């Protein structure tokens, strides 16, 4: 039988910035339907890892694979097009477009992928507690509300992989739990691979397993607490 490719795979990633080595031969697999948390102190290489996994940068050494396709060797534009249809990104900053409504912001990735699933966008907004705010502009939203819009936007195109950088960092406890549960449900219901970076043990508890990054290397893998 042919092995099923992982939703996301990194093989021996090494990245240096001058004399600083941010990653030292890091490897990981995120299976379809799996939720993985990456923890570690500031400066441990977490942001560098996310940028490489999301195809926003290319590794100096090593390989990045999305659903069985190697992507770090692709042309920048080809990689960006593939990312629009396969990978949902949630950054610490929301990066919403201020002149577009909430629902128009959420629909951006699906439109780039050649879709326009407004029903899904509305459902996602409802699931992050923003039902009824579709016509609002980002300027009237709180910081936490904008971050929840950004989470909905990342999921709109039904990505095979979701990468999130502190997705609940600006949220109160109740909304943080709702977003964490949404990410888990996405993995379970749509067989997406989910990887998020966090300092929050409560968020990490939602993951199937947790990888700890220290000085550019994984030091341990621990099971979920829930």
From TrEMBL:
Record organism: Deinococcus caeni
Gene, per the UniProt record: lolD
Family: Belongs to the ABC transporter superfamily.
Leader peptide range in chain numbering: none
UniProt name for this protein: Lipoprotein-releasing system ATP-binding protein LolD
Keywords recorded for this protein, A-Z: ATP-binding, Lipoprotein, Nucleotide-binding, Transport
InterPro entries (alphabetical): AAA+_ATPase (IPR003593), ABC_transporter-like_ATP-bd (IPR003439), ABC_transporter-like_CS (IPR017871), ABC_transpr_LolD-like (IPR015854), MacB-like_ATP-bd (IPR017911), P-loop_NTPase (IPR027417)
Pfam families: ABC_tran
UniProt-recorded Gene Ontology molecular function terms: ATP binding
Keyword ATP-binding: yes
Keyword Transport: yes
Residue span(s) of domain ABC transporter: 8-226
């Amino acid at each position: 039988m042919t092995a099923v490719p992982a939703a996301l795979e990194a093989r021996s990633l090494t990245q240096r910035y001058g004399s600083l080595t941010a990653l030292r031969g890091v490897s990981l697999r995120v299976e379809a339907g799996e939720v993985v948390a990456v923890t570690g102190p500031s400066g441990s290489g977490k942001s560098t890892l996310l940028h490489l996994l999301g195809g926003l940068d290319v590794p100096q050494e090593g390989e990045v694979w999305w659903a069985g396709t190697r992507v770090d060797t692709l042309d920048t534009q080809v990689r960006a097009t593939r990312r629009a249809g396969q990978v949902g990104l949630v950054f610490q900053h929301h990066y919403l477009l201020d002149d577009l409504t909430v629902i128009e912001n959420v629909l951006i990735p699906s439109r780039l992928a050649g879709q326009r699933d407004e029903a899904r966008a509305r459902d996602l907004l409802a699931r992050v507690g923003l039902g009824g705010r579709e016509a609002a502009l980002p300027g009237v939203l709180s910081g936490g509300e904008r971050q929840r819009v950004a989470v909905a936007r990342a999921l709109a195109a039904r990505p095979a992989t979701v990468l999130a950088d502190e997705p609940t960092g600006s949220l109160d406890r109740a909304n943080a739990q709702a977003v964490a549960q949404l990410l888990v449900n996405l993995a379970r219901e749509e067989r997406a691979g989910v990887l998020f970076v966090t300092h929050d043990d409560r968020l990490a508890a939602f993951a199937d397993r947790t990888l700890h990054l220290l000085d550019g290397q994984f030091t341990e893998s621990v099971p979920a607490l829930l």
